[in-house]
């Protein structure tokens, strides 16, 4: 990656933006997946989902922790997670989609994992050593997430008539939320220029490959690329995020500073 | 759902050099998923470096009712333990 020098304050603002985006993705998806706890279709799946949720929340601590550090306003990862309002969250809309049935949850996980895997792989070579180190740790976890969600998408897609129908419905429903992963803005461009992150668009080819190979094996039909929903990365969210935050943030809002 | 899946016995090797030990069982549709499930259920706290799974139905077990004939006869045979040798002092701790 190229190394260029950025005006320090621009670089800092862009870096905070990026760290919030990646940390909010793992936070919101981690919370969503944790909603399955105790409700999985089988004990083994329940535990596997809880493990995935915990991995994501663990990564959130690192990303948001670094975001607070770079921001330099004394905000901790917990402050960022529990004390921001909806419009301050930078996650993509895909991860705030409601869980739906098990097929919907898995399909959301799979399209996210394929992207997350490629992103972290690229971030392992980041010019910012702090980012490279977090990416290296998270990459191992996410490689397993992808193995697992990919395997289950294939099994259920190429399973019974009922499971095939549900997986196709999930795919059709979620497809319009996949485009946001590959759209960059000025902050992304500045960081990509400095070799800190990959251009979001650059991950599309690899993602297409993983997704189309998997869907073919799963006998599922990829929907045509039509209108893509966007906004989460700028803080413009769907109504679903508010309900999620109400539950996730309740305790810290009702009892500020509570610890246990 | 899980009642339709076969049961698998899970064996984990804790560290290199140790034997695999039976840690429990779980349900899974096939061997590959049984390994994945075992990873998620039994190695969350860094317990293992290797996993074996085997279908519970493939295990042949001794019958509890035969416990007497199988094991009692070895009860009172002290001569099967190597306790009747004098160990020379030079050998030290064995």
Automatic annotation (TrEMBL), chain B:
<dbReference type="InterPro" id="IPR009359">
    <property type="entry name" value="PaaB"/>
</dbReference>
<dbReference type="InterPro" id="IPR038693">
    <property type="entry name" value="PaaB_sf"/>
</dbReference>
<dbReference type="Pfam" id="PF06243">
    <property type="entry name" value="PaaB"/>
</dbReference>
<dbReference type="GO" id="GO:0097266">
    <property type="term" value="F:phenylacetyl-CoA 1,2-epoxidase activity"/>
</dbReference>
<keyword id="KW-0560">Oxidoreductase</keyword>
<protein>
    <submittedName>
        <fullName>1,2-phenylacetyl-CoA epoxidase subunit B</fullName>
        <ecNumber>1.14.13.149</ecNumber>
    </submittedName>
</protein>
């Amino acid at each position: 990656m190229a190394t260029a020098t950025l005006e320090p304050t621009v670089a800092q603002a862009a870096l905070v933006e990026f760290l919030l985006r990646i940390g909010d993705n793992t936070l919101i998806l981690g919370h969503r997946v944790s909603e399955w706890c105790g409700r999985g279709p089988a004990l083994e799946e329940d535990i596997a989902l809880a493990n995935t949720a915990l991995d994501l929340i663990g990564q959130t601590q690192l990303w948001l922790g670094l975001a607070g550090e770079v921001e330099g306003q004394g905000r901790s990862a917990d402050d960022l997670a529990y004390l921001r309002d909806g419009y301050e969250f930078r996650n993509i809309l895909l991860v705030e989609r409601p869980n739906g049935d098990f097929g919907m949850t898995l399909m959301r996980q799979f399209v996210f994992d394929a992207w997350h895997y490629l992103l972290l792989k690229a971030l392992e070579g980041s010019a910012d050593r702090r980012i490279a180190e977090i990416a290296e740790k998270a990459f191992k976890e996410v490689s397993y997430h992808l193995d697992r969600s990919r395997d289950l998408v294939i099994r259920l897609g190429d399973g019974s008539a009922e499971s095939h129908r549900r997986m196709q419905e999930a795919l059709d429903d979620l497809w319009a939320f996949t485009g946001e992963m590959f759209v960059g803005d000025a902050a992304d461009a500045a960081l990509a220029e400095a070799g800190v992150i990959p251009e979001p668009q650059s991950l599309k080819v690899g993602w297409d490959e993983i997704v189309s190979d998997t869907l073919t094996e799963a006998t599922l039909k990829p929907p045509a690329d039509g209108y893509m929903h966007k906004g989460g990365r700028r803080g413009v969210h769907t109504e679903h995020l508010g309900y999620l935050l109400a539950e996730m943030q309740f305790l810290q809002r009702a009892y500020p500073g509570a610890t246990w | 759902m899980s009642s339709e899946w076969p049961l698998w016995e899970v064996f984990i090797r804790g560290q290199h050099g140790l034997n695999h030990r039976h840690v429990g069982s779980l349900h899974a549709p096939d061997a590959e998923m049984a390994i994945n499930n075992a990873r998620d259920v039994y190695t969350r706290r860094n317990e293992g470096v290797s996993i074996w799974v085997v279908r519970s139905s493939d295990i042949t077990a001794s019958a509890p009712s035969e416990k007497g004939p199988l094991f009692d006869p070895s009860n009172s045979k002290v001569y099967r333990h190597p306790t009747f040798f004098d160990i020379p002092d030079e050998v030290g701790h064995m």
